[in-house]
Amino acid sequence: MGKNELLRRITVNPDIFGGKPIIRGRRLAVEHVLGMLAAGDTPETIRSGYPWLEMEDIQACLVYACCLVQHERVEPFILDQAA
């Protein structure tokens, strides 16, 4: 499944979560899935809590996040070794 096809799984509905990106019009925010992945949850664990969720939905969340940050520059935090 290509990038554009995956991104079609991410929708916005002003009546759901104030217009935050959600998965296929359902009440599951992209940020929630990304947060679970960042916390170390596996796709299988996430899917057990949301039986309707497909692996492509999780992949779509990652593609969406990648698209948002691909042109961003993140500066690393530099520690002062003298302190």
Structural topology:
Elements: H1 3-7, E1 10-12, E2 21-23, H2 30-38, H3 43-49, H4 55-69
Helix pairs in contact: 2-4
Quick gist of this model?
The chain has helices spanning 3-7, 30-38, 43-49, 55-69; strands at 10-12, 21-23. The protein is mostly helical. It is globular and about 55 Å long.
Describe the 3D structure.
This protein has 83 residues and is mainly α. The protein has one domain (3-69): Orthogonal Bundle (Arc Repressor Mutant, subunit A), CATH 1.10.10. The chain has helices at 3-7, 30-38, 43-49, 55-69; strands spanning 10-12, 21-23. Strands 1-2 form a two-stranded antiparallel sheet. A hairpin with an 8-residue loop joins β1 (10-12) and β2. It starts with a helix and ends in a 14-residue tail after the last helix. The model has no long low-confidence stretch (mean pLDDT 92).
Key traits:
mainly alpha; 83 residues; 4 helices; Arc Repressor Mutant, subunit A
Quick one: CATH class? Mainly Alpha
Subunit organisation of the chains: single chain
Question: Which of globular, elongated, flat, extended, rod-shaped describes the shape?
Answer: globular
**CATH fold-level assignment:** Arc Repressor Mutant, subunit A
Helix % is 40-55%
Please give the largest β-sheet.
2 strands, antiparallel
Distance from first to last alpha carbon: 50 Å
Strand content: 5-15%
Overall tally of domains: 1
Structural class: mainly alpha
CATH architecture type = Orthogonal Bundle
